[in-house]
Amino acid sequence: MNTGNTDIDFTVAFNGLSQDTPLAQAISWNILSGDDTLPPDKLTGTVKAGQATEAFTVAGAMAANAENSLQSAVMGDISVSFTAQAASQTVAETVKVQDIVAADYAVTAAEGDTVITGDYICNAEGTVYTFTLTAAGSASTGYGIITINGSQYLTQQIESGRSIEVKVNALKGTEISFASSWGTPAADESLPVKDGDTIVVNPFAGKKISTLGDSISTYTGWSDANPITGPECRFRYGEAYYGPVGGDFHNTELVVEDTWWHQAATQLGAEILISNAGNSTGVLYASYPANLDWQQYLQEMLSYKTRPYYLGTETEKPDIIALYIGSSDVARYKDGELGDIKDINFDTLIVANGDGSFTYAEPVTVAEAYAIMMHKISVTYPDAEIYCFEVVPNSGGYLSTVNGRLVKTHPFNAMVRGVAEHYGAITVDLLAAFGLDPDCDGTATQQDFEYFQSCFNGDPHPNAAGFDVITKAFVTQVLANSKYR
Asked: Other CB atoms closer than 10 Å to residue 178's CB: what's the count?
């Protein structure tokens, strides 16, 4: 018997048939050592009936492990049984196929100009990775095997000398490896990954995020692009603190991709649906300037009023809602005005009308206002996950100034945790993220303070470094707690 890199040549004699019996259309076979079946395009040779010999090519389907069996049997033996049918007789013979040589075929994966060797770890900021798979070798064809976090995906057949492009939508940290096999993919031929396909293993692909916030969460063209207090309100759109160079904005150093919410959506592979944010706004209190028009705008923008109803559109609802609101409240609430979850009488604060609607009492504490906001969001978007951000103090001033602000920040954050837990929401601890007073004793160290200040613009507004910290804190909580994981 002769063997080659691509085909296995052999001769098998069926002594029970006469020499003039045609056999080419009537041969089937299998590997005796298991349920595997040799690839049909790898078996060519001759068959004898008595003294006659004729050439044939075996036809049939291939089972899952056939090629692996062949490739692992280098210099080994595999017994194959052949059954011939002719003239109403069935005759079986067994031959031993010796010294099998694995086919010379390999698929090389590359990202751009970089050839991938070993495991590939997804570490880019985005979630879509593009790979080029190129086949080479003496075997005429084969396919790629892509393993993603233990799950295997087979590509279409890739002829030697040709390439296909495959994209993978995966979260950061996903492990990908590449291998190959010659022959035909064992999977259902309607299922292989084809040239140009995207393998989606990211659970957040297509998920939509909406935000409700103050100036920290604004950017022109986003936060001021949609009605956020009601389509008929005089002040429908929130002014943006952040914006590009050349505009009338307070901060023009950052592009929208730097903002915490845009970064988070990118890292999760999700989409921003609505950015409901406006300058100087709050839950119950806002930064009130002397301008009367601006005061009216801020009153309408208080987040317990109509803003919770504008986190989606007529056709799309958010899957994740992030609430980064309350910095203005921390700066302005006085003793007795903050409140706490244990002080709220929900029976009188929120009254069901029996028809699916609710009547809300006018809140007298920040906690009541926060609870009303959360209730409106929960009943309007019942399927959405809600993440409530704990706030940090204004970064301006000295260490003693910031420590003084922590006296009001800690109770506010405790209130947020209580209300969030009541509504089944998840909190994002930004004080811990910035390492500012992590033991919550009301006193930050000079070292902690200096790092904290380096992440802000000398006021409540983060710079690029600060947005990176906020993004990480939020994304970490989503990955740890989301039902979509």
From this structure: 22
Chain CA centroid to CA 77, Å: 47
DSSP summary character for residue 209: E
Identify the band that residue 288 occupies on the pLDDT scale cut at 50, 70 and 90: low
The sign of the CA dihedral 305, 307, 311, 315 is positive
Residue 47 contacts residue 54 (beta carbons within 8 Å) = yes
| Closest C-alpha among 299, 261, 297 to residue 283 | 299
160 close to 131: Cβ distance less than 8 angstroms: no
Task: Mark out the alpha helices in 364-461 (DSSP H runs).
Answer: 366-380, 399-422, 430-434, 446-454
- Shortest CA distance to 160 belongs to which of 244, 212, 103, 119? 103
276/212 Cα distance (integer angstroms): 5
d(CA 286, CA 288): 6
Average pLDDT, the chain: 79
State yes or no: pLDDT of 158 exceeds 80.
Answer: yes
Map out the domains of the chain with their CATH numbers: 8-98 (no CATH), 105-200 (no CATH), 208-481 (3.40.50.1110)
Q: What DSSP designation does 85 have? A: E
What does pTM read for this prediction? Answer: 0.75
Q: Which helix (H) or strand (E) holds 405?
A: helix 399-422
For 379, list phi and psi in degrees, rounded to 5. -80, -25
